[in-house]
Amino acid sequence: MDLSKTFLQQLANCSKDLTFVYDLNLHSFAFLSDSANDFFGIPTKEIYNDPAILMPLLQLEDRQYVLEQIDKLRNGATYIDTEFRLFMPDQTIKWLHAKAYTLYNTESEGFHVAGIVEDITKRKEHEISLYTIKEQKDTVLQILGHDLRNPLNTISAATELINKQISEESKVQVKKLLYIIASTSNNALKLINDVLNVEYIETQKVALKKLRFDLIDRIQNQIDTYRLIGNTEKDFILHAGQDKIYATMDPTRYMLIVENLLSNAYKFTKSNGRIEVTVEEKDSKVLISVMDDGIGIPEKLKSYIFDKFSKARRAGH
Known about the structure:
- By secondary structure, this protein is α+β, with helices and mostly antiparallel strands.
- The protein is 47% helix and 23% strand.
- The protein has eight helices and ten strands.
- It has helices at residues 3-14, 36-40, 44-49, 60-74, 121-165, 171-204, 215-229, 251-267; strands at 18-23, 28-32, 79-87, 93-105, 110-119, 211-214, 235-240, 246-249, 274-282, 285-292.
- It has a five-stranded antiparallel β-sheet with strand order 2-1-5-4-3, with helices on both faces. A three-stranded mixed β-sheet has the order 7-9-10, covered by helices on one side. It has a two-stranded antiparallel sheet with strand order 6-8.
């Protein structure tokens, strides 16, 4: 073994990350750093003897995905960057981030895969915690946007109607009370709209951060939120070819799009109406469709619907 190779192995063994070299022809590890035992909870010697021993550790939902990534390297890809989960013997979930490269060995005239695996469990747990907080915040915003704004609009409209019908005798005193009701309602509505607008503007500034997650689960959570806060009977139906469909994208932007589609469908569909969400996996893409039996979009407004702060609005909304 030459000196440079010895130093590289020593460096790899000093790191908490796992460094590996895998022979694609022999289906065996040519090198595993000392951290392998800590990563997998299996003696390194056993992994050398039988690399397949690692496969049962892969979370069942991620197993096919990881195999597809390995196949990419076998079929000519030079690099993969991926995240996946392990189900450890102590019943805990470990998140790993792997970067791997295909290298050609001139001596054996074969291909090897060399890479580094990082334990990102703490980071993932933090991200999941932040997402849970965001979902709770979104639920509050939904309540602000629907359950509070609508009653306040009703109060304002009723106040205006009473104001037109009161007699001259009681006008002064009642007018004073009506002014208090109207101004309080309008101030509350302004506050709600300001909160919603600020949240929208701040969301637009969020940098893209791509993560792998289950699209079906996120959509179902959003639908369940509407069912909880809805004050009219509207039928939500989710059609999906599979129980779980994974994709890598920015979950914040993804949910903003889904929420906008569902919000419009909800807003313009009458009581006892029907809102259908369809999720279809097509090769390397996913098609998400939202259909309702509401009032539809007039032809003259369709060219504006993708503009920011679009003028494609309906009166009263």
